[in-house]
Every structure is written in C-alpha cells, then in structure tokens.
Amino acid sequence: MIQLQNITKKYKTANGELTAVKDVNLSINKGEIFGIIGYSGAGKSTMIRLLNGLEKPTSGTVKVNNQEFSAISGQKLRDARQKVSMIFQHFNLLWSRTVAENIAFPLEIAGVPKAQRDARVKELIALVGLEGRDTAYPSQLSGGQKQRVGIARALANNPEVLLCDEATSALDPETTDAILDLLVDINERLGLTIVLITHEMHVIRKICHRVAVMEAGEVVESGEVLQVFQAPQADITKKFVSQITDTKETQETVAQLKAHYPTGQLIKLVFVGEKTEQPVISQLVKKFDVEVSIVHGNISQTKNGPYGTLIVQVDGSHENVSAALNYLNTVEVQTEVIVNVD
Ligand SMILES: Nc1ncnc2c1ncn2[C@@H]1O[C@H](COP(=O)(O)OP(=O)(O)OP(=O)(O)O)[C@@H](O)[C@H]1O
C-alpha cells in the first residue's frame, strides 16, 4: 500500500541545511497498522507530511496506493490525497460547527449532495459511538469524544489510508485505550491501512502489527512488534521497550527485592508468544534442585501475541542454579540476571 524508497528530506535553515529524514526505506502493507516511534525531533512529523503529500522528498520516491506522490502535483495530487486521511493530536475541529457539521465538512468539499451527506454522517456517528451527540459543539465534548469526531471526519470520504499524528497524546490513559480500541475496530471492519506516529511504546504495543523506530531522521530498527519487544537491537529501541517492561514501579520493586533477598539470584525471564503458556517454572523446580520464588510479573498483549516478564528468585547450589539457567535458555526463554547475590 505504501512504499518509501531511499527517502531523504532536507530543510534549509538559518544555520544551514538540516536533514530531517535520512535514507528511509519502508514498505507498509494494505490493512496493516504500522507504527513509527521516535522522540521529539526524530523526523516523525516530516514522515507524515511526506506520506500525505504535503511535502516532497529531497530525494527518493513515495508511493501511496499505487500513486507516486513524489512525482505528481496539482489536481492529480489533490485527487490522490483524497484517499489519505488524517487525525491529529489536538483534533483540529471547527469550533463553530456541531459534531454532525464537522463530520459533514469533507463531504461538502467533495460536493456530496445534502441527503447523501446526512445519511453518511449518521452512519459515521454510529461507527465512532457518538449517537445522540450530533448537535453538540466541540467545546461541549470530552477529549476522547473530540477525537471520535476527528476519526469520523477522517473516514467520511472512504480513505484507503489513515494517518494518525500523536492521536492519543493529549488523552488520559483510559481514553487513550478506548480510542486505540476504536482504531483497531475500524482497521478490522473496513480493512483500512493505518500509519501512526507516536513517542509512546504503549500505543505501539497495544495496536500495531509492525513498528519502525526513528532516531535523528533514520529508521534504526523495524519489524514485527513482538520481535522488537523480544530482542530490541538499537539502544533507543531498548529504551522504548523499557517504557513498558521497566516502569518506575518495576524499578522500585527490584530495588526492594535486592534488599530483601539476601541469597540466590534474581532473574528476569522474558516470555513471548506461545512460550507464555509453557510450564517453565514447574519444570525448573522438578528438574533441578533449586527453589524458585516468583517475586514480580506482568504480561501484556501485542497484536502478534502475548509478551510477559517474570522476576524470580532462584536459590540453590551454584551448579544447580547454573544448570537451571542453561535449561531456561534451551526452552528459548530470554533470561537476564538482575542481581547475583551469591
Ligand atoms: N519546515 C521545516 N524547516 C526546517 N526544519 C524543519 C522543518 N520541519 C522540521 N524541521 C526539523 O527537522 C527535524 C525533524 O522534525 P520533525 O518535526 O519531523 O520531528 P518529530 O519527530 O515529529 O518531532 P516532534 O514530535 O517534536 O514534532 C527537527 O530538527 C526539526 O527542527
């Protein structure tokens, strides 16, 4: 659906030339939810503007829905852009228009007759769960409801691609999850391709099939979300993954554990996919003469399967603990010794 080939985007600034995006190659499949994650200044917004045809690359080609955005302009580009829609962090609603009028706006611009417009607006209001709020003004809506209006408006002209620019960054965690669930629902029901940019790994973990990690204009790592969680390569990816696995709460727990477990080893086990269902811990106790205490654990779902971490204390003779650790590696459970107290 989307192909970016050797994309570089340079800007001229007062301090000379600045490379915002550097030699990026990406291929996004039809019907996929693809996330681009990076910190501020990584080049995410520039990527979005390249994908919606608002910017042309300095070099390289951008192909969306079989149209080479980087090579067309004028009416041809405007027509092609009809198939690429967008939602925003701050919703960008028209404040003097009601919910229904906001959603109708792109239909008016496209010249859809009133009766047809009204029917479509009704359909979209139901799709995003805003029944009964059609005459409300944006100022009377919660953040989550405003984003629902944004989503309905973006879907009005049946786009092929929905671009989400930090779409949940202004929302609280619960509302974020509700909006993410709505995006998954739309993706599955309509087969819509979704590309989102974010600085939050939670968003990637919860709804994306694949992810690209950006740093200083470059894609430093990309792949299936679960794989990236299991074996992050770049330092920045490890940092993003630790947003989920190594929260402040976990760090505090580990600090307490170090103080309270004077013997044995504290080991972090990482389980992915079907490995989360294996009876690894009971096998460990059965096969080796070690004592295992579970001290902390969590499990989260990704689109490609579950991902869990478990911190255990393994106590026993040095040989037995080593043998137990070797065994864990044979069952493809990733292990990390957090603290060796022996
Ligand atoms: N129109 C522009 N002219 C000059 N420099 C720009 C322009 N747009 C972006 N940049 C620069 O390009 C780099 C990447 O910016 P970009 O906005 O794409 O990053 P980002 O990851 O989206 O960050 P943020 O989330 O803060 O917007 C930054 O150094 C930025 O200052």
TrEMBL record:
Keywords: Amino-acid transport, ATP-binding, Cell membrane, Membrane, Nucleotide-binding, Translocase, Transport. SUPFAM superfamilies: ACT-like, P-loop containing nucleoside triphosphate hydrolases. PANTHER family: AMINO ACID IMPORT ATP-BINDING PROTEIN, METHIONINE IMPORT ATP-BINDING PROTEIN METN 2. Coiled coil: none annotated. One of its GO terms (molecular function) is ATP binding. It comes from the Bacteria. It comes from Lysinibacillus contaminans. Residues 2-241 form the ABC transporter domain. Gene3D superfamilies: 3.30.70.260, P-loop containing nucleotide triphosphate hydrolases. This is Methionine ABC transporter ATP-binding protein.
